[in-house]
Amino acid sequence: MPTTQTEATTDMFAPPVNRAMKVLDRSFFSRTIPTSAARIFNPKDIARCRKELTASRDTLPSTRIDPIRADPDPEKAQKGNKCLLLRPEVAHGDRTTWSAKLRDLEQDGTLGVIAYQLQLDYDYFSYSEITSATIPPPETKHDDEIPQGFALAGHVAHLNLRERYWPYKHLIAAVLADKNPMVKTVINKLDNVGTENAFRTFQYEVLHGPDDMNVELREQGCTFKFDFAKVYWNTRLHTEHERLCNMFREGEAVCDIMAGVGPFAIPSGKKKCFVWANDLNPEGHKSLVDNIRINKVGDFVQSFNVDGRNFIRQASGDLLKSEHSVAIYPKTKYSRSKPEENKKPEPLKTLVQPRIFSHYVMNLPASAITFLPSFIGLYSNVPDMPADEIRKLLAPHTEQKLPMIHTHCFSTKSDDNVAETKEICGEISRQLGYEITPETPEVTIYDVRDVAPKKRMFCASFRLPEEVAFRKVNNIS
């Protein structure tokens, strides 16, 4: 006896098909499926019958349908009688389709096998099933598949529909919202992020729900609030946000050059890193400031709103001369009834902000690599601070090493990324005027994610070479 539904059974539980539907008609998906059920005469036998008939593979093999139903006879249902749905191959009028166990239970008077009209409606069917039943399938193998994925930012679902799906866009959006309780608004992107707007925002159309782009979401234990229409956010980068943040250690200084609303900066501040976070977009900076306050990381995260190339030099020079420390106190319960007895505890420790950044993050994959020339001579032309004095702050004089640079970028796709790794290292070398190869110590070209059929996002991490950091240059603005 088969353990899964046959192809015929699968078709039986498929939704009705209507390729002409452009506006969602939920009532169209109501259907009645004639099947069979085991009428349990004594409610006390329901659990036993379910267990035994499941073991004999007589019950309906569907995790989406509750097999225990009220008896179709109103009088029996009123008395609490239940039925157990059977797989479609079991015919109530043909005992040859019954298993030995089902026949035994029927013969000893535990149950009876009856006809049952199973009612299914729109709520039963999934997003994939509804869209497949209404949208024509691809005509060739080269056509785009019916859209299944979407990005979610708070209550906003973000689609990027191909032109052939535009006639069905409102239907797709309505079904998506119905099948995902968190979704209130569905939008469709109209242009390419990063090419139409320097702030990586995009034009969009609302396909479903209110035009409310003020979202709130959680990531890495932090709360982020922002206007999704005015700032850059990509939910698909949550793994990358976490991966980099896991590299940062308590007490280190991190320079986030294109910080956005703070997906790297805020979690790093939570783990007590000293973060200097910058974003050129005024709206992004405003949200960054709000998120610093919301997450109570103001002791560790400072915000800036300047050009990234200038910020690299400005922040590095200012950190050398900056003095900042944070006392870390134990968690203490305070008495409201006897406030006079409350005493401020002694700090567990005091974290002193370093004078050298341990990490620079440049999450602007379309152009971040072109910011690398700002690191040339980073420590050779600091006003009022000779390079030899800065060298004494670094290994081998101290445990502080030159910083790691993490720059995101785009490249092509291949099975092994060998060619892409060489190409990215070559471009870094050209920008720095210093050879960086895949074999250079502490160089990692990390495959972040696919962004298009022939395009992939990478994160290139490498330690800033001493020759680059202390190279003597003229006319630095």
UniProtKB/TrEMBL annotation:
* Protein name from the UniProt record: tRNA (guanine(37)-N1)-methyltransferase
Q: Where, by residue number, does the polypeptide cross the bilayer?
A: none
The beginning of the lineage is:
Eukaryota, Fungi, Dikarya, Ascomycota, Pezizomycotina
Q: How does it assemble?
A: Monomer.
Gene giving rise to this polypeptide:
TRM5
Query: What range(s) does the SAM-dependent methyltransferase TRM5/TYW2-type domain occupy?
Result: 150-466
* One Pfam family in the UniProt entry: TRM5-TYW2_MTfase
| Subcellular location(s) of the protein | Mitochondrion matrix; Nucleus; Cytoplasm
Species per Swiss-Prot/TrEMBL record: Clathrospora elynae
* Function statement: Specifically methylates the N1 position of guanosine-37 in various cytoplasmic and mitochondrial tRNAs. Methylation is not dependent on the nature of the nucleoside 5' of the target nucleoside. This is the first step in the biosynthesis of wybutosine (yW), a modified base adjacent to the anticodon of tRNAs and required for accurate decoding.
Gene3D superfamilies, per this entry? Answer: Met-10+ protein-like domains (3.30.300.110), Vaccinia Virus protein VP39 (3.40.50.150)
**Ribosomal protein is among the record's keywords:** no
Q: Which GO terms describe its biological process?
A: mitochondrial tRNA methylation; tRNA N1-guanine methylation
Question: Which parts of this chain are annotated as the region Disordered?
Answer: 57-78
Q: What residues does S-adenosyl-L-methionine bind to? A: H241, D279, L280, D307, G308, N363
